[in-house]
Specification:
This protein has 573 residues and is an alpha/beta fold. The protein has 21 helices and 14 strands. The strands form four sheets. The protein has a five-stranded parallel beta sheet with strand order 7-6-5-11-12, sandwiched between helices. The radius of gyration is 28 Å and the shape is globular. The two termini are 37 Å apart. Monomer.
């Protein structure tokens, strides 16, 4: 397992403190926090030590600081804190060289998860329905989490677990028989129209609703005609889904659905009957285990004999462990389903499955502010189209003003539009709700995808104007406060990637990239105010080469981070 530059210094500081205090380094590492930038980079507070030794914290801090000698760090005491600051050398060179050596793989560690497997269940739209805007959280979060684990060397089995079984397909089938055009059975939009009409009719007409239920029972009985129609609906939907996923740059190792387990329901129920047991409740079959007050039971089979989500999820969990022998199985599904997954995982544990604790629900909050159209779902494709159209206006305006030259304005607008929507979601803490705002997400300024893409494009442009990446450079020349601040941000990506994977929290990477972009913007702007601080400084080739090397490291870091988030990285904006 490789160690980042930042982690090495953190570990060295912890080791020195541990040696001075006579305790294991592991006891100290978690107590070292980021310092106030005015006083250093790393900080250790001495309150606990002072209490144990019955001495004043400032006295303890002063004594420790005086006794510590850590290569590459300047150690000082400030009140009760022992602070360590990275010395410009060798830290600056180590960071820049590590970034440039890793290139596109910066932030990755192929050894960290070597030999481990993670299954990630995400996106999971329903057949015969469009991929709605509400799917962006599970889709982008799942895709990014998969990227993070791949970067850390895990074997990733991403599963798009389609909702392709249940009464809704009975609704589509009887709706199609009533309202459908057989010539348009391959038209996804037509199937959606049929479903909307059928669903409305079922809510008003109990007899029609019963026809849908009966069709699903025919599906569960594998009646050939019913299965033939279902297969046609499924293939039509898959064709539409794959086009949208390709547009978003998203790939799944497996696209499979609930239908995969239609013939395994009885075996699952039989296994549960042995342990922990099943019982009948109002004609339905439920898992026989203790429930909290007012907690609904785990329903395995309804009184009409049809199965439910829980039954299929239990079968899927067992199948996935048998196929992949996973170390983790993640379900990137909305917070609303928290009870469902708690009960499924608890049932697996009650069944005696030793891997039940390796099944993890990764919940997320809701999006507000995206209104529905005529009572129907806002389609994700439509949102991507609108984002592209809004961005295209900005692209055209920049072309007209002469500030942008591109041979493919439409392709550029597509890249920026996708980045706007993806980053607009991923920058938020996963479990938080947020309000969608068009003007905010597509703005080239502020905490947005276009702002980050522009920072990347600006660094690429500076390199082009500067004649490309320098063959060599002198890191001792990078002494400006803006340069040292930028180097510190670049150093954080590897540790941030690891933390984001451990916490299933892509927003950690998103926020770091904003810090990198802001630091680079301040560096670039400083050169506009003071010509001696310009990256492409005149009449000093050595300083120019050093600053281009730092710019190259910045470009690489932004590109690596944006790629992990699934966001395109145009080099000209």
């Amino acid at each position: 397992m490789s160690t980042s530059v930042h982690s090495r210094y953190h570990a060295a500081f912890a080791q020195a403190l541990a040696g001075a205090l006579g305790v294991p380094a592991a006891d100290i590492e978690s107590q070292i926090k980021p310092a106030d930038p005015a006083h250093g980079d790393l900080s250790f507070v001495t309150f606990a030590v002072a209490k144990a030794q019955k001495k004043a914290p400032p006295a303890i801090a002063a004594s420790l600081a005086q006794s510590l000698q850590v290569p590459g760090l300047e150690v000082k005491a400030v009140g009760p804190y022992v602070n360590a600051r990275f010395l410009p050398l060798p830290f600056t060179q180590e960071v820049i060289d590590s970034v440039r050596l890793a290139g596109a793989a910066y932030g990755s560690d192929a050894e960290a998860g070597k030999g481990k497997t993670v299954v990630i269940d995400y996106s999971s739209p329903n057949i015969a329905k469009p991929i709605g805007f509400h799917h962006i959280r599970t889709t982008f979060l799942g895709h990014c989490i998969a990227n993070l684990y791949r970067a850390l060397g895990w074997r990733v089995e991403g599963i798009n677990y389609l909702g392709d079984w249940g009464k809704q397909f009975g609704l589509v089938a009887v709706g199609f028989q009533e309202y459908g055009d057989p010539a348009r059975i391959d038209d996804m939009a037509h199937l959606v129209q049929v479903y909307v009409q059928a669903n409305k009719r079922a809510g008003e007409d109990p007899a029609f609703d019963e026809k849908a239920r009966e069709f699903f029972r025919r599906m569960e009985a594998s009646e050939p005609e019913a299965m033939k129609l279902w297969n046609q609906f499924r293939e039509t939907s898959l064709k539409g889904f794959k086009r949208i996923y390709k547009r978003m740059g998203i790939h799944f190792e497996h696209i499979e659905g609930e239908s995969r387990y239609q013939d395994r329901m009885d075996a699952v129920i039989d296994a549960i009957a042995k342990k922990p047991g099943v019982k009948e409740s109002q004609g339905a079959i439920i898992v026989d285990m203790p429930y909290a007050e007012n907690e609904p039971p785990v329903l395995l089979k309804k009184n009409d004999g049809s199965t439910l989500y829980a039954t299929r999820d239990l079968a899927a969990a067992e199948d996935r462990h048998a196929r992949f022998q996973f170390d983790k199985s993640l379900y990137v599904v909305a917070q609303d389903q928290a009870l469902h997954f708690r009960q499924v995982f608890r049932t697996l544990k009650e069944m005696g499955q030793p891997w039940a604790d390796q099944c993890i629900h990764v919940p997320f909050g809701r999006i507000h502010g995206m209104s529905t159209r005529k009572g129907q779902v806002v389609e994700l494709d439509q949102v991507l189209d609108e984002s592209k159209e809004r961005v295209r206006k900005l692209v055209d305006a920049n072309i007209a003003s002469g500030s942008l030259v591109t041979e493919d304005p439409d392709g550029l607008a597509e890249q920026i539009g996708l980045g706007a929507i993806a980053f607009g979601d991923l920058k938020h803490n996963r479990t938080s709700d947020y309000t969608f705002d068009w003007d905010e997400v597509t703005s080239p300024e502020g905490h947005t995808g276009p702002y980050l893409q522009y920072a990347h494009a600006r660094s690429a442009t500076v390199l082009r104007k500067g004649g490309g990446v320098p063959a060599g450079y002198d890191p001792a020349l990078l002494t400006l406060p803006e340069e040292q601040a930028l180097v510190r941000q670049l150093a954080r990506l590897p540790d941030t990637v690891r933390a984001a994977a451990e916490q299933y929290e892509p927003s950690l990477v998103a926020r770091l990239l904003l810090d990198v972009a802001a630091a680079y913007s301040r560096y670039y702007t400083a050169g506009n105010k003071d010509r001696e601080k310009r990256i492409l400084v005149e009449d000093n080739d050595a300083v120019r080469a050093a600053r281009l090397a730092l710019t190259d490291a910045t470009r690489i870091t932004l590109a690596a981070g944006l790629t992990l988030l699934g966001i395109p990285t145009p080099e000209n904006m």
